[in-house]
Amino acid sequence: MGKPMLKLLCLLLLPASALVAVLCWLPNWSSVGKAVPIETVEIVQTYPHDSQAFTQGLVVDQGKLYEGTGQYGHSSLRIVDLVTGRVELMTPLEQRFFGEGIAVLEGKIYQLTWKERNCIVYDQATLKPLNSFNYSGEGWGLTHDGRHLFMSDGSSTIRVLDPNTFRTIRKFRVKQGARSIDRLNELEFIQGEIFANVWQTDQIVRFSPEDGTVLGWLDLSNLYPLNQRASDQAVLNGIAYDDKNNRLFVTGKNWPNLFEVKIVSVPTIR
Ligand SMILES: [Ca+2]
């Protein structure tokens, strides 16, 4: 290439490279204008819920409610009649385990434990333990997209796991712009998004399972007033989605009710 041609090429490329440099330099370029909707819910139906259940995992599958409960000496995995709240089948965990999130996938139930680094796998119909997997760190919430498990650990990080090996395939952080959203607890995969309880709040955050980008918030502070709760541990925790009938259920730790709710848009953004 001759010198005149090289000069011309440099002149042509300079504005483009300058633009790229500016775009890369902008610290929150990907988050500019990322205000997201805050929505609330209306109660469609109220059902009884075992107020002794320290809810850590909640799933609806084929019209049945599956619940995982926590606390040492009280942890369990349950099949619950959705309408009456009656426990139909229950497997208690060993005293050394503090039960956490659950996911139901291909005839198996996966139940995390808090600090015991042990995911117990059960037969879905009998709740009989089949095997278990080890993992590092803490276990909080669990859900799946039909193929992989998604696991929270109390931070803003979500691990994507192979359900056959529990190997971590990838990880991402849940972020709204530059702000990490941590204390992610119970999870639910809903129509291509993940919904997560944010521990010790009445807020649910919705985010992308691809990269953790926050897509919106649900404010559920209207469901169960703080001054009626038995303790400050009785926080919102438990999201279950009935994908066949498009029904959304929520409850909390030691809440006396489980609610079917409908999302209602309100004209606010955060
Ligand atoms: Ca769930």
Provide tags for this entry.
1 helix; Neuraminidase; mainly beta; single chain; 22 strands; 270 residues; eight-stranded mixed sheet; binds calcium ion; four-stranded antiparallel sheet
- The top-level CATH class is Mainly Beta
Round the mean pLDDT to the nearest integer and report it: 90
In total, how many beta strands?
A: 22
Q: Which sequence of SSEs, written as H and E, runs from N to C?
A: HEEEEEEEEEEEEEEEEEEEEEE
Shape: globular
Distance between the termini: 54 Å
How much of the sequence lies in strands comes to over 45%
Number of domains: 1
Architecture overview:
The chain is mainly β and 270 residues long. The chain is built from 1 helix and 22 strands. It has one domain (34-269): Neuraminidase, CATH 2.120.10.30. It has one helix at residues 3-25, and strands spanning 37-48, 55-61, 64-69, 76-80, 87-92, 99-105, 108-113, 118-123, 129-134, 142-144, 149-152, 157-161, 168-173, 175-176, 179-180, 184-190, 193-198, 203-207, 214-219, 236-242, 247-252, 257-269. The strands form 5 sheets. An 8-stranded mixed sheet has the order 16-17-18-19-1-22-21-20, with no helix packed on it. A 4-stranded antiparallel sheet has the order 2-3-4-5, with no helix packed on it. A 4-stranded antiparallel sheet has the order 6-7-8-9, with no helix packed on it. The radius of gyration is 22 Å and the shape is globular. Calcium ion binds at residues 58-59, 143, 186-188, 239-240.
